[in-house]
Automatic annotation (TrEMBL):
Pfam families in the cross-refs: Myb_DNA-binding
Positions of the Myb-like domain: 9-62, 63-113
A molecular function (GO) term: DNA binding
Organism: Dendrobium nobile (Orchid)
Protein's UniProt name: Uncharacterized protein
Coiled-coil ranges per UniProt: none
One cellular component (GO) term of this entry: nucleus
Start and end residues of each stretch annotated as Disordered: 218-243
InterPro entries linked: Homeodomain-like_sf (IPR009057), Myb_dom (IPR017930), Myb_TF_plants (IPR015495), SANT/Myb (IPR001005)
Alphabetical UniProt keywords: DNA-binding, Nucleus, Repeat, Transcription, Transcription regulation
DNA sequence: AAATAACTCAACCGCAGTAAA
DNA sequence: ATTTACTGCGGTTGAGTTATT
């Protein structure tokens, strides 16, 4: 974490401070009782540095009242609160955190707290919950940055089962909820359907169904329980629907693409110029394949949540969790 | 075990405001 | 009133460290 030593044209040293230089600076200030003029300090103290460099070294590192070590949870909360009121006024914020420098707080904000807020679905600039388009734009990134491909969705179920939910899991739930809220809200404005709910269901189901296994075709659902698992009423081999976890694990990438596609199709997201050519092609591909295919092979009624067949129970459960 | 990517944070840069000449 | 010197602040950099592939 040190820069290679270099010299300005003036001959003054730059870069990392040596223990000897530190000691000279400490000795001088302790002897004088204060730093006095930073401009003249280096010459008198015998340092080949500019005054600015000395001031920075003292205020950010050598000052005896500087607190070292990890930020506590209380400090984190205080920084977030103060930042929501003051913005990037690091020196002001640092006055409320004894022993912490503005530089240290700024670094901690940029490397830790910003990410933390983003994960919680909170915009680090406005400190408001992000239900905006940025969420959608960043969704693929969020998915891929998850520790495993289904971890974004898993907490949904864990939470309803009353299992412990840590901050990150909670954040992911909020992100997912916010995403769907945006999608459904926007879809209700669509003129393509006279029934906003039906259209919302269509969007949501279409989103998921592009990767769904084929619908089971039990002719008589009351008898289905007597059939051996994996067998239809006609004796055909039927694929058992995978759990939502398996689905999410296998299709997280496709889900994110679908979200992107629907956000674009609803004019919620302007066609982005900073997405890659591959991503653009993905959107086109999705438009031409899974989405249209699903639309054509399922009637609108069949796509309504309430009308899902019992054989789709695992999907219904999954959708219930996110479609509150 | 090696290569690569991501992260961390001390230090630097440049601008703005203020005081002194 | 203008110029110069100085200080403080926020943004950015980049070498070292750690994690991941």
């Amino acid at each position: 974490m040190v820069r290679s030593p270099s010299r300005e044209e003036t001959g003054l040293k730059k870069g990392p401070w040596t223990p000897e230089e530190d000691q000279k600076l400490i000795d001088y200030i302790q002897k004088q009782g204060s730093h006095g003029s930073w401009r003249h300090l280096p010459r008198i103290a015998g340092l080949n540095r500019c005054g600015k460099s000395c001031r920075l070294r003292w205020t950010n590192y050598l000052r005896p009242d500087i607190k070292r070590g990890k930020f506590s949870e209380e400090e984190e909360k205080l920084i977030i609160n103060l930042h929501s009121m003051l913005g990037n006024k690091w020196s002001l914020i640092s006055t409320k955190l004894p022993g912490r420098t503005d530089n240290e707080i700024k670094n901690y904000w940029n490397t830790h707290l910003k990410k933390k807020l983003l994960l919680m679905g909170i915009d680090p600039v406005t400190h408001r919950r992000r239900t905006d388009l940025e969420l959608l734009a960043n969704f693929p990134k969020l998915l891929s940055s998850s520790s495993n491909s289904c971890s974004l969705i898993n907490p949904l179920m864990e939470n309803t089962l009353g299992l412990p939910t840590d901050t990150v899991q909670l954040a992911r739930i909020q992100i997912m909820q916010a995403l769907l809220q945006v999608l459904l809200k926007a879809s209700s404005f669509s003129s393509s359907s006279s029934n906003p709910n039906a259209y919302s269901n269509l969007v949501l189901n279409n989103l998921l169904s592009s990767s769904l296994p084929p619908l089971q075709t039990f002719s008589d659902s009351s008898n289905s329980s007597s059939l051996p698992p994996g067998t239809s009423a006609f004796g055909e081999s039927v694929q058992t629907p995978p759990s939502y976890q398996d689905f999410a694990a296998q299709n997280s990438e496709n889900i994110s693409k679908q979200l992107l596609f629907y956000s674009n199709s609803n004019n919620m997201l302007e066609p982005s110029e900073n997405i890659s050519v591959d991503q653009k092609q993905d959107q086109i591909d999705l438009n031409e394949t899974s989405a249209t295919k699903s639309m054509s092979t399922r009637s609108l009624d069949a796509l309504n949540l309430s009308d899902l067949d019992d054989s789709d129970l695992s999907w219904k459960d999954f959708l219930d969790q996110i479609y509150w």
